[in-house]
Amino acid sequence: MKDTGFDYLGSESVTDVARIVMALMSEVWIMRDRQIVTEYLLETQESVTRAQIDNFVPQGELAALIAAERDRFARLVAGAPIAATKRSVAEILERAGMAASEHAA
């Protein structure tokens, strides 16, 4: 990417953008967490209510799966600035906490 020589975002604006990204990341994670719980409940029950999803507390393997997915998601988003300078697929996947072999075709 060519350097334009002009800084479009001062330090205050960068902080504001970081706050926006964190808020969006939080909302996306909440939706993803609810999706995982909903899918689990649908696999184990015939129907699911909103209250069941709201009150569900994952245990054991499901809790571990959700924690691993949360960590992968956080590394992916937080690692995005690094991806701008490390451009190989292996490096980008490594920064996201994933192995290239996991995504080989």
First-last Cα distance: 29 Å
Give a short account of the largest sheet. Answer: none
Proportion of strand residues: under 5%
CA radius of gyration:
18 Å
Mean pLDDT: 82
Oligomer kind: single chain
Number of domains: 1
Counting H and I runs of at least 4 residues, what is the number of helices? 5
Q: What string gives the helices and strands in order?
A: HHHHH
Q: Let me know the number of strands.
A: 0
The coarse overall form would be elongated
Uncertain residue segments: none
Please identify the structural class as seen in this structure.
mainly alpha
Q: Roughly what percent helix?
A: 55-70%
What does the secondary structure layout of this molecule look like, with pairings?
Elements: H1 11-44, H2 50-55, H3 60-78, H4 80-83, H5 89-95
Helix pairs in contact: 1-3
What does this structure look like?
With 105 residues, the chain is mostly helical. It has one domain (11-103). It is 67% helix and 0% strand. The longest helix is centred in the N-terminal third of the chain and has 34 residues, at 11-44.
Short description:
The protein has 105 residues and is mostly helical. The protein has helices at residues 11-44, 50-55, 60-78, 80-83, 89-95.
Quick tags:
mainly alpha, 67% helix, 5 helices, 105 residues, single chain, elongated
